[in-house]
Amino acid sequence: MTDQERSAGAVREEEKGRDRRFPLGRHHGLSDGVFSIAMTLLVLDIKIPQNLSSQAMVEALNKTALPAFATFILSFYVIGSQWMAHHEMFHDIGYADRRMSLFNLQYLLVIAVMPFPSYLLANYGGQPIAVAIYAISIGLGGLMRARLQWYALSNNLLKAGVDPKAWRKDAINAVVFGLVFICSAALAYISPIATYACWFVVLGGWAVLSRTGVFGVLKQRFGRK
Question: In what ranges is there compositional bias, type Basic and acidic residues (predicted)?
Fold first, then answer.
């Protein structure tokens, strides 16, 4: 065998290694572990100083614990929604290749770091930089999830029978979700309250419309396809 043939064979073996496809068991285990730890760590931000009098404790609960608890609820809902979307996504994926695994790790990196922007929002919720960091973190999560969906769709990683049109629509929704949150980071420097209102509309309104079937009713009523 000549050196050129050996070199060509090595290239083919390397390409074969890159194209290997793996079962999803370990992806499920790692992903669920990251989500559960991130959601659990959120509660550590809810605390008040020790050895307080009754009146001081009431003040601490109102000024410190209540904002932290509100942020905990928001972040728990956000991460929980991302977990549900991730769970549904991987239910439709048949297997993963090396690049898909890398993209999933990058997505999990955003999830794992969420307790930090949540801490910033709980303690500095009136500061634009804290609100902006939180918004960008959520937005990046949406965009990373959309990238996973597009890659799986474009590289034939979906299970047989999965509707590619529905997947493409869900990926577009994830992109819109991510971009809205990233854009809301700029709004934080104008009014943090307006940014919170934007989040409420996106998270609350979107959830209500999609879960109650209002989109389906409108589609039937006006004949949208």
Answer: 1-22
Cβ–Cβ < 8 Å for 198, 180: yes
- HSE-CB of 19 using CA atoms within 13 angstroms: 8
Output phi, psi for 159, to 5 deg: -70, 155
Residue pair 114/79 in contact by the 8 Å Cβ criterion: yes
Number of Cβ within 10 Å of residue 192's Cβ equals 18
Element (H, E) at 8: helix 3-18
> Of residues 52 and 90, which shows the higher confidence score?
90
DSSP symbols for 55-79 = HHHHHHIIIIIHHHHHHHHHHHHHH
Q: What is the pLDDT of residue 10?
A: 38
Please give the span between the terminal C-alpha atoms of the chain, in angstroms, as a whole number: 60
pLDDT per residue as tens digits for the range 110-123:
999 999 999 999 88
Whether 144 and 84 have beta carbons less than 8 Å apart is answered as: no
Other residues' Cβ atoms within 10 Å of the Cβ of residue 48: 14
* pTM for the predicted model, two decimal places: 0.78
Which segment of 51-65, 153-167, 199-213 scores lowest on mean pLDDT?
Answer: 199-213
